[in-house]
Write a sequence for this structure.
C-alpha cells in the first residue's frame, strides 16, 4: 500500500543537510513531491512532501533521516499525509504578491497577518527578515474574488501612516512578468 508523508527537519545550518535528507528518502524508495527549505539566522529548516509506492511507517522514515546527522543534531518530524487532495483554503482565489519594507517596528507581522485574516485572505508563503533596522516582508497571498485590490493596498499602507513603510500588492502574473530572471546565457 502506498504511503505519503510530510517531513520537517530543523537544525543548526551546515553544508549537506538537504543532500542527506534526499538520500535517506531515495534510499527508502521515496519520491519527493515538493520541498521548501530556508536558513534563518543560522537555523536550517525544511519541509518535504514525499510519496512511497510501497508501505512504510513514519518511524522508519524519521530514523533514516535522523541518521543523516550527528546524534541529536537533526530535529525530525513526520506526519502521514492524506491521499485526498485538500480543498483550497480560499475557493477561486487569485494569487497576489505583497511586499512591505521600511523601518523595523515591533508587531509589523502581526498587524499585516491580522488584517489579511480579517479579509479572509490566505497566506500561502511568507518570508520576512530585519537587517540593519530595515524590515522586509514578501508574501504570496490567495485573495478571494470580489475584494478590491486597490482598497487592500490602501488599507495595508494605512497600518503605518507615519512610519515610512513601502507597500506593494501585485497580481502574481504582473509580479512574475516584471521580476523574471533568465539564467540562460547567449553563446
Amino acid at each position: 500500500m502506498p504511503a505519503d508523508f510530510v517531513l520537517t527537519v530543523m537544525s543548526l545550518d551546515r553544508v549537506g543537510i538537504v543532500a542527506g535528507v534526499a538520500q535517506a528518502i531515495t534510499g527508502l524508495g521515496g519520491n519527493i513531491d515538493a520541498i521548501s527549505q530556508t536558513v534563518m539566522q543560522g537555523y536550517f529548516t525544511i519541509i518535504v512532501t514525499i510519496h512511497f509506492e510501497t508501505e512504510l511507517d513514519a518511524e522508519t522514515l524519521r530514523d533514516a533521516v535522523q541518521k543523516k546527522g550527528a546524534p541529536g543534531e537533526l530535529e525530525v518530524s513526520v506526519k502521514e499525509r492524506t491521499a485526498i487532495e485538500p480543498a483550497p483554503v480560499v475557493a477561486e482565489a487569485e494569487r497576489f504578491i505583497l511586499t512591505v519594507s521600511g523601518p523595523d517596528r515591533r508587531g509589523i507581522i502581526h498587524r499585516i497577518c491580522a488584517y489579511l485574516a480579517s479579509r479572509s485572505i490566505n497566506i500561502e508563503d511568507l518570508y520576512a527578515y530585519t537587517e540593519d533596522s530595515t524590515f522586509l516582508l514578501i508574501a504570496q497571498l490567495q485573495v478571494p474574488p470580489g475584494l478590491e485590490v486597490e482598497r487592500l493596498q490602501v488599507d495595508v499602507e494605512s497600518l503605518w501612516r507615519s512610519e515610512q513603510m513601502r507597500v506593494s500588492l501585485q497580481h502574481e502574473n504582473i509580479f512574475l512578468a516584471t521580476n523574471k530572471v533568465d539564467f540562460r546565457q547567449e553563446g
Summary: The longest strand covers residues 30-40.
